[in-house]
């Protein structure tokens, strides 16, 4: 999971992911919009591939990169779980607050 | 966004977030399960606070840390958008495949 969040913690790598949601592409095309040396760009692709976010394959003299969107699953699930625990806690706090109000308010709204 | 993904790219920091979904806590309590020196642990809290994932306040001689779950918003939205673009593309590919099949199949299923 560290490696997945690290892979996404960089604007160049997120740009590559955004481009690949529209379909696979050769490295050269992916590198074109980025003002950096090819070896530096290839390191970004390596990071994405290590994290399972992309796969690449050689076709002739080109390397084609494709997205593996399932790779986001663990990150999504983790964030989602934190939100659900948090929201569950807020719901319980609200229920407790309502019960205390009902027990201490001598003129409950519903019974006036 | 880099800083947010980086904040989540560490097991200790994710543990802290998971603990805080159950409610705010003093630094000492948060540090207890982690086998590391307090200054190292405080750096993790700083990283989370810099990313807006937690806030902290001093109460007497304690520092209390609380979660800011809204901070996950940009990360969630970004991941979600990538998935939607990808799935939209799959839907369009499927539609094209069906059209080609309909145009080239001399015996379409529906008309036999």
TrEMBL record, chains A, B:
Pfam families in the cross-refs: HTH_20
GO MF assignments: DNA-binding transcription factor activity
Superkingdom of the organism of origin: Bacteria
SMART domains the record matches: HTH_ARSR
Family annotation (SUPFAM superfamilies): Winged helix' DNA-binding domain
InterPro entries listed in its UniProt record: ArsR-like_HTH, HTH_ArsR_DNA-bd_dom, WH-like_DNA-bd_sf, WH_DNA-bd_sf
Entries under Gene3D superfamilies matching the protein: Winged helix-like DNA-binding domain superfamily/Winged helix DNA-binding domain
PROSITE patterns reported in the protein's UniProt record: HTH_ARSR_2
Residues in HTH arsR-type domain copies: 1-87
Protein name: Transcriptional regulatory protein
Organism of this sequence: Maritimibacter alkaliphilus HTCC2654
Organismal lineage: Bacteria, Pseudomonadati, Pseudomonadota, Alphaproteobacteria, Rhodobacterales
């Amino acid at each position: 999971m560290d490696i997945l969040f690290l892979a996404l913690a960089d604007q160049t790598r997120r740009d590559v992911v955004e481009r690949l949601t529209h379909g696979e592409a050769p490295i050269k095309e992916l590198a074109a919009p980025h003002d950096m040396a090819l070896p530096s760009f290839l390191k970004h692709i390596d990071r994405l591939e290590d994290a399972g976010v992309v796969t690449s394959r050689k076709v002739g003299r080109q390397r084609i990169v494709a997205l593996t969107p399932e790779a986001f699953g663990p990150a999504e699930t983790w964030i989602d779980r934190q939100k659900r625990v948090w929201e569950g806690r807020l719901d319980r706090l609200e229920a407790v607050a309502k019960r205390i109000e009902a027990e201490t308010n001598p003129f409950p709204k519903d019974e006036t």
